[in-house]
Amino acid sequence: MGVTSKKKKGKVRWSNLYSFSCFRPSTLEPSAAQELIGQPGFSRVVFCNEPHLHRKKPYKYPYNNISTTKYNFLTFLPRALFEQFRRVANFYFLLGAVLSLVSLAPFSRASLIAPLLFVVGISMLKEAVEDWHRFLQDLDVNNRTVKAHDSNGVFVDKLWKELRVGDVVKVNKDEYFPSDLLLLSSSYEDGVSYVETLNLDGETNLKVKRCLEATLCLNEDEEFSDFKATIKCEDPNPNLYTFVGNLEFENESSYPLSPSQVLLRDSKLRNTDYIYGVVIFSGHDTKAVRNSTRSPSKRSRIERKMDKIIYLLFSMLLFVSLVSSIGSSLFLKHDMVDWWYLQLQGNDDKFFNPSKPVKSAFLQFIRAIILYGYLIPISLYVSIEVVKVLQAMLINKDVEMYDEVTCKSVKARTSNLNEELGQVEMILSDKTGTLTCNQMEFRKCSIAGVSYGGAVTEVDLAASRRINVDFEACDELSTDEFDQISQSYEVFEFSVSDFSTQKAVLGREVTDNTNKGNPRLTKAEHKSVIKGFNFRDDRLMNKNWIHGSNLSDITMFFRVMALCHTGIPLEDDKNNKLRYEAESPEEVAFLIASQEFGFQFCRRTQSVIVLKEFDPYSNMEVEREYKLLNLLEFSSSRKRMSVIVCNEEGQIFLLCKGADSIIFDRLADNGRTYEQATTSHLSNYAQDGFRTLAFAYRTIEAAEYERWNTIFTQAKTTVGHEREQLLEEASEMIEKDLMLLGVVAVEDKLQKGVPECIDKLAQAGFKIWLLTGDKRETAINIGFACSLLRQDMKQFHLTLSREVESKKQVKAMKKDILHQIESSLRVMSNKEAPFALVVDGKALEIALEGDVKDKFLQLAVNCASVICCRVSPKQKALITRLVKQYTGRTTLAIGDGANDVGMIQEADIGVGISGMEGMQAVMASDFSLPQFRFLERLLIVHGHWCYQRIAKMVLYFVYKNVAFGLTLFYYELYTSFSGEVLYDDWYMTMFNVMLTSLPVIALGVLEQDVSSDVCLQFPALYQQGPRNVHFRWSRIIGWILNGVVTSLVIFLANIYILSPNAFRQNGHVADINSLGAITYTCIIWTVNCQIALITSHFTWIQHVSIWGSILLWYIFLVLYGALPPDTSGNAFKVFIEAIGPAPLFWMVTLLVVVVSLLPYFIHIVIQRTFYPMDDHIIQEMKHCLRDDHHNEMWLREQRNSKRSTHIGFSARVDAQVLSFTQQLHRKKKSIYKSVTNSPIYRSMTSSSSS
Amino acid sequence: MTDASREEHTQRETAFYLFTQQRLPACKPVLTPAWVITIFLFTGFIFIPVGLVTLRASRSVVEIVERYDAECVPEPFSIDKVSYIQDDSIPKNCTLFLKVNKYMKAPIHIYYQLDNYYQNHRRYVKSRSDQQLLHGQKYQSTSSCQPVEFNNDQPIVPCGLIAWSLFNDTFSFIRERAKLKVNRKNIAWKSDREHKFGKNVYPFNFQNGTLIGGGKLNPRIPLSDQEDLIVWMRTSALPSFRKLYGRIEEDLDADDVVVVHLMNNYNTYSFGGKKKLVLSTSSWLGGRNDFLGLAYVFVGSSSLILALVFLLLHLKYRRPYGDTSYLPWNRKSLSG
């Protein structure tokens, strides 16, 4: 191990590549913060390499295991029970169960307690299972291993959870840090390490961490055998960017520590072979864990509305109970005293005490509340929970949402938001890792005014295809519109032919693509060849560029590409190609591209860069050395980077790459040869969403360089505030009079299927906002790439102007922003064009404050797409919250990194991308997807289904409980409100638990209004959810009324038919038991048939559950009746002996079922026939989809259903089609003109006219 | 063998796969106008004949209902009926003359009907002990029988309010001087006789208290044979109810006059309840009740009317099946 590390150390020290950073600001001066050590809040003491000292107080710190579980073995029962009984309904039933113990209740104890136990038990089981999964996930994390120092310089594998503060660990490349570490040394000699903090803040560029000079020597395993040091530092806190502490090491000298020595948990070691570090904070003390908040429990809209329904039913219950108790007391006072058979006088029956009517009435009231409890669907919650778990299971199992690459599938992490997926209106998306793969591809370039890499974009292709389709469609139209068509016919013909000529010009590549029909496919094939390089142009490939004109510019261009960077090569065995690592993925793409073009960057030392160049004159590969004189670093304010190199001939070049505007400003007058052509290429590239960089160079005379170099060196060695400025000025001096070479376009590679997905989502009516921490240019690029932005859109930019920003006056900033917003709003009210809003993070900060907020949101909501760039994680969450509050719409936030956690937790639904390695977003999310594109299916198919299912299910639940519960009340009217129940206790217990639960669960899990294909073909169907057509109050009230009607029909029909006459041929009359059983049978039949009427999708499961439930009732009745009479009581043999053989029983059942279903049936008949809903029509269309005519109709409707959206791929295609046709129209006119003006034409026309 | 089992296995797997992919074969009924009309017509054509048959059965039942509670109180007591019924010294004999209007075929069921009598009152219904009825005095925890549980510190068998308030009017029927044969056996459910009322349980200490409720029981006859009690103890569901008293096992011809000698013992006067005597034949549907038949006919004819109305509406406002103009995107384009 030691040998390999030494070998690696021979390599370049990265830090030295940066000329600016060779003079590091001194860390030895004690700053004010350092004096805080030892004070409260800064009292932590860590004994490095002596973890055993941390086993005892006062230095006992927690182990490094984390737990995100809600409960543990001890707290589960009380906490889970508390959670359960926080629900109104459950608490009510608990009350009922308690009362049943004191003989107040009208039912037996078991029949009250059993369902409650069942319901609560299932819910708690679900909680336990979910928590168990969290536990397993924690276990997985906690059981990762890391090399930790054991003793005598030996490092052994240790589980993460067993790490203690003070442990020395060795973390290898691409591993996560197990806890917050103090960096001691790294594989690089100067103790630098590169850290990826994607999981913490979402930033993709690597961060440099440096160890203290004092600990540099600790870079071997053996060094740690007797290493001892003490760290005194701040207490655990969630602040990611600060750290205060000092290290006492070797003869008690104290070194101050800064955040740059601290490696945070959940970040990852990159580009560095290994590091050594000491654990400072472990487990729950780490900054990452401190930063994470418990995900709030979210409830869906339907569930919140369901609470209101419960309140409504509860008030109904109170009303009915009140009526009962008043009725009871009136009877008691006036009539009951005369009923001698009750022996009321002189008895102290507390319910019927004529001398204390008020008390009796009160007790009756309580009893009635329990009695009519069936109005409140006790099992609703549990059924919904069961259904949601099953729904979640089906979502998880969907193979259409399985990602083969990562072998992950969609996961519904919390199942209680399934139906909310069907009501989403706004999608707030993160960029990096969510839409893009954080991987750059070299796509196109323009060298010396010539664009390479194909000019036809997918949009163009799709547009041409669209035109073809329209053209064919026109062909099929009937002839009576002939005149009109013939005109457009020409246009289309024209466009198509024109397009094919264009294709011919562009060469093989395009035709290949069109022949295969799927450009994406070819692209995917290509990708497998070279990662990061998606370029094909025969003029440049295979060294063909040597035949081109401007050869010197082309070679220079490639040199810029190969020399102006900070990357380093890595060996790669296969066919002499190298792999590269650099600070940004763009640079890697450039290096790979230049290697492909024949300028292989193969070695670099501190001062020399070696290229293997293909020499066009000798047709040979030659190795050339370039002396690296200076490197002018890239920074976000400079937006450019330059290197000054000296070639073998001693010529000095300044090679510069940077943002086009910056470069164009610094061109020499004779360097603008290609400016015009390049600019037009630039705009094309930008429209396609590529990130562009301009390349330029200049030759520097040796004398000039020397002069400049002294100034620059002086600036570099200056200490103090003016250093930056001096450096800036120095670089300005040399970066001028550039010669433009060209531009390159790299694609921030979108994840698979993202544009299509966004397109579908746009058609389904979602608004998509892009929130990214990246800079504005990148954000806009991606906006274009995923069709959120288009050239013909009116873009509003909200930014703080430089002057205002520098003054830092809040008032001025506010005024500025307000002004911008108002002017945008004015523009908006005047114009029809689609609008896009691009907001900068700083501007957003102002815009989200107090009074500006409303105006801003008004503007933002009316824009077709909104892009927020440079936003902090906190702002993301804030935007989400404000949008949620302001618009009242359901929001979905999707992201992949820890920086999205706030947003994910704040949104109504949080979705995490699980494809990446980071888990924070996933842990905080409600759903995790391996790929962004699965969002389409998740929302449009599963969301739509789940919404419908849950809505139907809740309504049906309300219906069935009202229908059943009210019969109990009606019966009270006939028993002088004495509280007697018509049904046996066990019938009632069975009602919700067994006899009606399965069909409703089947409905909730399997119901489909339309199949998944249809959902995807008609994304507009999704709008049912956001418009909430299935769960409006009118519907809810309708179902309650339906329940009332049903209960009336059932009750009245039964008592009028079965009383007082005999119901059997042998003269027996129906007593309370027979009447109860018959009425109850009618209820079971009716509610189960009702659900059959609601169901529109019958698989065998539905059939079994519906008809099985009815059958189960008879089976139950027979079995229960067969039990000995002391168990079955009044139900003894009630079916076999009494009601079963009676024809009247069966006839009553038939009549009652038909009559009580009739109102609903008439309602749906009228609705379906005269006011059909979207899904009804689609069902009908699907139903008659047999012949070709209907197929045609199907396709036509599919086309029609595509809403004219402002964003998305198809919108762009539309725009492109429009511009094509306009262009062609113009062209046609000009041709026509030229033809008509031509002498031949004239002569022909004149001859024909004469 | 293995092939078959493997095949079965894969089949099961695919079924499960189809389930998880929510692609199980399903029937998706669509309510088309044709279906609607068919359903309504079908309902109509089923329900009307059924209703007519039912109605016919109900009409074939001959029923004689005679209220006697008021008539059987002698003139002098008509103001204070309660004191009459509570005075044991006054004979309670009463005679009714029932005219048979139509031929009644044996068996003719004899019912007594009580109105405004809340046998379904909760306090009343619960006041019994099924265990005691089955096991007799052996069974001692009879607290549910409150307030008729003990008398003179002796348990009462059968205990409870229901038994205590046993109906005790008696009827005898005479036609043309000859006593009609009334069978008072088999009026209770067989299961009650055999499984709920003990064969070796004899009434004990019954109606011995200060408050006498209803009828007395012969202490030498076991409860399982006391069919009047068994019938009475099957509490009725509604405050107006009939209970079987016995069956006349001779046919009655039209214009026959049946003389009923009854003992008007039972007190319904204190709470204004009515007592009626009912003689009724039965059909396969039971007693006479036109409601069911009428309901069937009504529902059937309503469905026919609905079918017609719907047909007319459908013809007038015909919506083509799967009419795409109703789809939201098309609708939007119509409205602009």
Task: Describe the structure concisely for a colleague.
With 1250 residues, chain A is of the alpha+beta class.
- What structural category do the secondary elements of chain B indicate? alpha+beta
Instruction: Report the order of strands and helices of chain B.
Output: HHEHEEHHEEHEEEHHEEEHH
The biggest beta sheet of chain B is recorded as:
5 strands, antiparallel
Strand content of chain B: 15-25%
Helix and strand composition category of chain A: alpha+beta
Helix content percent band of chain B: 25-40%
Task: Report the total helices of chain B.
Answer: 10
Relative helix content of chain A: 40-55%
Spatial order of the strands forming the largest sheet of chain B: 1-11-3-9-8
Average pLDDT of chain B works out at 86
The 3D shape of chain B can be described as: extended
Proportion of residues in extended strands of chain A: 15-25%
Rg of chain A (C-alpha, Å): 38 Å
Describe it for me?
- Chain A: Its cofactor is Mg(2+).
- With 1250 residues, chain A is an alpha+beta fold.
- Chain A contains 43 helices and 35 strands.
- In chain A, strand 18 (436-447) and strand 19 form a beta hairpin.
- The longest helix of chain A is centred in the last third of the chain and has 41 residues, at 934-974.
- Chain A is globular.
- With 336 residues, chain B is an alpha+beta fold.
- Chain B has helices at residues 2-20, 33-59, 81-86, 122-125, 130-135, 161-164, 190-196, 227-233, 290-316, 328-335; strands spanning 63-67, 93-99, 108-115, 150-151, 154-155, 170-175, 178-179, 182-183, 241-248, 257-263, 274-280.
- Chain B has a five-stranded antiparallel sheet with strand order 1-11-3-9-8.
- Chain B is extended, with a radius of gyration of 31 Å.
- The mean pLDDT of chain B is 86.
- Chains A and B meet through helix 10, helix 34, helix 35, helix 39 and helix 40 of A and helix 2, strand 3, helix 4, helix 5 and helix 7 of B.
